[in-house]
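Q: For a teaching handout, I want to show students what a protein-ligand complex looks like in token form. Below are the inputs, and the small molecule is adenosine-5'-triphosphate. Please produce the holo structure.
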Amino acid sequence: MEKGYSDKAYRWNRENYSSRRRFVDIWSFVLTLMFKLWRYNKAWSYPGGITEAKQAARRKAQAIWIRNTLLDLGPTFIKVGQLFSTRADIFPVEYVEELAKLQDRVPAFSYEQVEKTIEQELGKKIPELFQNFDPIPLAAASLGQVHKAVLYSGEAVVVKVQRPGLKKLFEIDLQILKGIARYFQNHPKWGKGRDWIGIYEECCRILWEEIDYLNEGRNADTFRRNFRGHDWVKVPRVYWRYASSRVLTLEYVPGIKISQYEALEAAGLDRKLIARYGAQAYLIQLLNNGFFHADPHPGNIAVGPNGDLIFYDFGMMGRIKSNVREGLMQTLFGIAQKDGDRVVQSLIDLGAIAPVDDMGPVRRSVQYMLDNFMDKPFENQSVAAISDDLYEIAYNQPFRFPATFTFVMRAFSTLEGVGKGLDPEFNFMEVAKPYAMQLMTNMNGAESNSFLNELSRQAVQVSTTAFGLPRRLEDTLEKLERGDMRMRVRSLETERLLRRQSNIQIGISYALLISGFTLSATILLVNKFVWLAVFAGLIAAAIAFLLIRLLLRLERSDRMY
Ligand SMILES: Nc1ncnc2c1ncn2[C@@H]1O[C@H](COP(=O)(O)OP(=O)(O)OP(=O)(O)O)[C@@H](O)[C@H]1O
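A: Here is the structure, written as tokens, with adenosine-5'-triphosphate included.
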């Protein structure tokens, strides 16, 4: 029997856990790991030390031991290990490589437990809910397993059932992990320059989200909506009547896994096109939707009979908020201009770097990277090489990339790997280029937006003297067109500015008319011409209404651009 498959080896694999026992198991892992690291460092510091090859072999052996121990510790640690497999900014590369191989090698749970969970969650027995239910799971992982079934309406579905007792196990394990995070934070050596508590909190948030199947269902719905205009992306429909936080019923959408290159070929599918689709789907998620699949291992993407991409598993999604996108914009501008200071500042604003007293080494590292890695054309770069460069710089620096960033990097590297497997000539950067250009254009729009705000401020200032406006507007346009902002001004922007100018002039005329009619109404009222005064008042009110509409329109267009 393969290691890790006997129930004896899985002390966590029961519904009633002993928290004391977990405490001992987990802390003995941590202390053994610390001892191994200490011994390793000690050997390395001897005069003459150990050879480079021996050092690498030891690190590898340690990494394999960590991976196997995490497997033995069960679902929480398998997931934490998988999360850490994206953190080359925190751990040595050998560890990260080994953690990336952390597969969910855990035994499936019994059909009786499946029956019990479904009845508890959906309030009915399996035969009352499903016409047919396959007792043998289609797939089993650390958090749950997937069974094929047929509804009474005849629709083929899959039912995702969560491993029993998972919530309790998470509660115990995460409580112990909190203590470990605190210990590391206060450790004179390990705590330096690392935000262990922050990393722990990030892990907690992701893990709790991942075991809420209602959240996964909502994510699937959002993801499907976001791809409404792209019929080459398929997302299984959620059957909400058969869903709860621990059971999720989805439309059965079978496909060939994106990494089964020969099977795809045999099915007559265009491998080159699939590689492009994979990259495009991710670029759309990141740049257009700001909502992306954060766990894109090849098992979660399949290809349908028509060559459509099918996405599974929406438990772990990343979001890029618009302010983060703005921060990324600044980073990108900084990279494009090779301006190390701007890049560092934007990374501080993004929370990617914790500012320290002496930022000199960080600035120098970033500048070095910009000067060297920007020499090659963008499309000749490989994502894996770029992320390796970034991580190399980040490792042992006061950097802490946000989880979103590391997820994006992992998604890109995974897709690049799969893309190259599908089509040896595939180049992720080549596919990304037009999207990056689009992003840059949007960025220019945003930078010009602040310029527009400046412009409207000037316009308001001069509105009292109405005559100054055209001259100042012309100056500003001239400035924009000369490229003083170091950006490309498109005729669209110019058009928008002119439209804005005419709107401002109309607004000023409206304001003058309102004042005129209000003054007339007051004079008429004082002179007892009541009906005429009411008439003038109504005209003033009507123009005021038009003015408000105009102001709202201006504000809307400000928000849009
Ligand atoms: N709607 C579906 N139609 C057909 N097959 C599906 C569907 N959903 C899931 N599967 C199959 O089940 C497998 C596991 O599904 P999913 O990834 O959602 O489960 P999981 O428990 O979150 O697994 P993991 O933790 O490994 O990501 C998928 O790789 C796919 O083969």
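A: Two things your students might notice: The CA atoms of residues 376 and 519 lie 69 Å apart. The chain is about 60% helix and 5% strand.
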